[in-house]
Amino acid sequence: MDNFLFSFFNLDVMVRYFPAIVDGFILTTYLGLAVVLTGLGLGLTLALIRSLRWRVVNVLIVIAVDVFRALPPLVIIILFYFALPSAGVTMTGFTATWLSLSLVLAAFSEEIFWAGILAVQKGQWEAARSTGLGLGQTLAYVVLPQAVRLTIPPLVNRAIAITKGTALGSVVAVQEILTQATTAQSFSGNPTPLTLGALAYLILFLPVVIFGRWLETRFAWRR
Amino acid sequence: MQTLIDNFFNLEIVVAAWPILLQGFGMTLLLCAVVVPVGLAGGLVVALLSGARSRCLRWIMVGYVDFFRAFPPLVLLIFIYFGFPFAGIDIPEFAAVVLAFLLNSSSYYGEIFRAGIESIGRAQIDAARSTGLTAGQTMRHVILPQAIRNVLPDLIGNTLEVVKLTSIASVVALQELLYMARQAQSVTYNASPIVVAALMYLVLLWPLVRLLSRLEHKTLAGR
Description:
Number of helices of chain B: 10
Radius of gyration of chain B: 21 Å
Oligomer: heterodimer
Radius of gyration of chain A: 21 Å
Number of strands of chain A: 0
Largest interface: A-B, 52 and 50 residues
Largest sheet of chain A: none
CATH class of chain A: Mainly Alpha
Structural class of chain A: mainly alpha
Helix content of chain A: over 70%
CATH superfamily of chain B: MetI-like
CATH architecture of chain A: Orthogonal Bundle
Strand content of chain B: under 5%
Number of domains of chain A: 1
Distance between the termini of chain B: 50 Å
Distance between the termini of chain A: 52 Å
């Protein structure tokens, strides 16, 4: 038991590496927020463009969405970070992680927003247009408010799942929680920093997961 | 253009790396063949326990599910792989990956199964029980077949995520597709093996993504 405490809850090690884990925590939060903002923004934009039903554009959107849904995020990050430099495009690990996860979230959220837009009945469009609203006004005041309501629970769950992928940034040397924890572990020869890192992730994500569960019961899809 | 081809689709390098890429692909398939059934079985157990009569057990299951949904799978894997030896448990890569996946995906699958079981009306249970079926038989022959049909798109969607997630096993040096591709890349200083690995993931998963899209739209249209 003492041995276990010494390994996983070593107070000395905890105190020594606490600041590093806090730095990682801040960076993970920042990266996660950036991914959620750009990912959802881009996803909504693509879904809106898709609702204009330009055939060629829609085919391109569907292909791009499929590709980013099919490829593992880690593979995309590694492609951006290790492969693109050969084409003269270099980016930092942070940019590669942010861009990859944003594109993945955009792909998933485009599908969800689009499903929400389709779920709003045709009669609603027709009624709105016949009262003299323009296409943009119909979207903004009639369709989107209903669509977004339907899509909130799946969007939140997907956003959480993808934001957790910020830990993948450790593979391309982003100084987020996991990197800080593994570095500290190898310096100290003690796995306590991993415990700290795990706690940091729980502090960050547990409230969001519980919030997501609450939203799910609150805004459940009415079947 | 020629440099682009040399760097990303270098035939010579692809031919040379092909055998180890195939080997990696085989390992990825083997990994999926183990973690998907294990995750499904774990998820079913989680769902059944979540519906238990004991209030205490139900809360424990909510805690279990939320805990592992808040934990990034890569962090879980690293904790198990690098942390366990300090507790005196030496764990091979494959077992570490399977354990991490069991904990992670059983919570996701568990939530999906639970939603499915809850979608079946109480009257069905009463009817089945009144015909003389035991509780176990009712679950197996009446509730589960309908429940699974109701949540099939979600089950397939999560399976897609699990298969994609196997790429994180490369971080603990399990010789699956991404690991092999990165080895080949670092030996040849050429990005082609990673590009080919990405294409292999795409070939493997695109059909699943398409199927999923169609299922999602079908359930939506039937609403």
